[in-house]
Amino acid sequence: MKGWIKYGLFALTILLLVIWVGGFVGKKISPQQITREVKEVDNLVVGKVEVLEEVESAYVGQIVADKRIELSSRLSGRIKEIYVKEGDFVRAGKLLIRLDAEDIEAQVTAVDYQTLQAEQALKSAQANYEAIKKTFERYSTLHKEGAITQQEYDQILAQYESAKAQVEQAKAGIRAIQQQRKAIASNLKYALLTAPFSGYVATKFAEPGDLALPGKPLLVLEAPPFLLEVFLPEKMIGKINVGQIYKVYVPSINRLINSTVVEISPSLDQKTKTFRVKLKLHDTTDIKSGMFANLLIPEKLRVLLIPESALVKRYDFTGVWTVKEDNTLELRYIRLGDKRGDKYEVLAGLEGKEEIIVKGVERACEGCRIRR
Length: 372
Prior knowledge:
alpha+beta; conserved putative lor/sdh protein from methanococcus maripaludis s2 fold; Helix Hairpins; six-stranded antiparallel barrel; 3 helices; 21 strands; about 30% helix; about 40% strand; rod-shaped
């Protein structure tokens, strides 16, 4: 009897416990009454995704001078003096480099001595000619009178012709020496390198004491105007025409410059499928050849842009906080394209109608509600 009483009490206890745990005792709470507390955040700046229907596509090119020449010597010799440095502006005709021309000057001096000797030889030949000429004239008279034999006349005639030929030979020798001196002396001007046009010394390849060799560049001289040389893709054929004006951005000096198309290559490079275009820069202040610049060409293209301040970066993840209709936040993964100023192109993840957090992203959280 006592065992049954114990078993019954145990069973009753279990039954009451099940009834209590199952909620059959006490006031019931409906699921609608259970609400999650939503965190609210403030000091967040909301903005919209910027949608552009036309964008300026950038094509990288290099700035070149309209006039450019590499100066070199036609002679071999040591450089005696260089009168300019890189960046100097020089006028046309200014002396830039002087080579050591002692060897040439010595050759000219030697030829001058030869000229003096040839002139003395000419004077001697002329004196001999004049003496024989007078004798020949007397013998000619005697020959006509029959006072001398034909053999005597022929001998004096031969002497006369020989003396005359010696004079002409001496004159020809002087002319030859003069031409030789002229040829040697002309090399002296090649020892002096002058500026062929007014411009700037862009590059200096040599220093005094260096050996100058024919064809070896010593200086590079450039003159404005400056041009932007850029290679455009095949799709731009027919869209770019001479006379059109485009903006050019030079990153190294952070300047935007207007330019005019002045030259378009008629052929397409078969390997790169590009063609060359040259544009004249309107303002060349602080511009130097060799600088890289971006040619900005407007193109019809739908692009989504967001400010850099809106980006959320966590390791390999890049996203933005989007604002839902109930003003709660959702972290959205995005894929970025090129950077345009302080904004980025969005290639995937946004449609363009979304509102996003553009400032204060560090205080945003998933599911939080913003205070407008």
